[in-house]
Amino acid sequence: MHGHLFHKNHASDKFYEIYAKLIAKQMNLSIEQVRERVIPMLWACDINAHVEAMDEAGIDKAVVMAVDWGMNEDVGEAPWSIEEINKQVYEQVKEYPDKIHALCAVDPRRGEKAIQLVEKAVQEWDMKGVKFHPTAGYYPDDPAFYPLYEKCVELDIPLCSHTAATINAPFMSKFANPIYLDTVAAKFPDLKILMIHFGSLSYTMNCVEIMACRPNVHTEFSGYQAHATTMPDYFLKTLRYILDAPTLIGPPIREKLMFGTDWPYLETIMDQKTWVEWFNNIPQLAETLNIKFKQREIKYILAKNAEKFFNLK
Ligand SMILES: [Zn+2]
What we know:
Elements: E1 3-4, H1 13-27, H2 31-43, H3 47-57, E2 62-65, H4 82-93, E3 100-102, E4 104-105, H5 112-123, E5 130-132, H6 146-155, E6 159-162, H7 179-187, E7 193-196, H8 204-213, E8 217-220, H9 225-230, H10 232-244, E9 257-258, H11 272-280, H12 282-287, H13 295-309
Parallel strand pairs: 1-2, 2-3, 4-5, 5-6, 6-7, 7-8, 8-9
Residues 2, 4, 262, 265 line the site of zinc ion (ZN).
């Protein structure tokens, strides 16, 4: 769950300008070095690079997406329209029908256009859901977006929304608080919702609590490579607690968690191949902490839960 396909025309020049400044600071490079070396690497992340990285990591199936940043007033629209961006993703993904599936990235503030795009993406391009990045400047529980949610229910596709703090100024973490998805889950009990990044560090338990109360809310783990790298003990103890946490209604939490990578982001923290191996090895890794995991639990998180959620079989 959760990989990206890029193209230069997926974002505005302003976006890359801001991104270059941020990465230069983070990696201790000059802005020119980032512009010349790092950003072109991002643009090169097309379907061929994605498939190569999947094969190397032993990943059989992936769900990929673009991101709709265009409505954020500080970065502005990309050279391609959001329809062109999603179509370009579809045209790459269609070459791998059983291996790679796509989500339709759209900002719900696009209103009627967003609804029409989602309909087309699902009916003509076989896209498997909608992807939001609310940090671009909106709360997902805005009643103005309810017609889009009604459309998702009608099309039987999930809403997948980012729920983690962001380093990527000018995007704002406050919009990523999963509590706003709880409102959507309550108003639309037939809408399947995926909390992307499992709330990262700050919102994890909030996500657990929401899943315990809302049968239609699920989550995926991309971003936790950072936790696995820097605080593996905390990660393993927390994961055990989460898998055992009681739900008040609906399926158990262990059936609602999905493995994710956010490729190619986070490759510098832990590459995708290592992350897959690390996750697969959890039963052995946890033995040293005297915590027990069944290989079957890991298998469900790595594959089965996502296949069921996205109707991939
Ligand atoms: Zn992502």
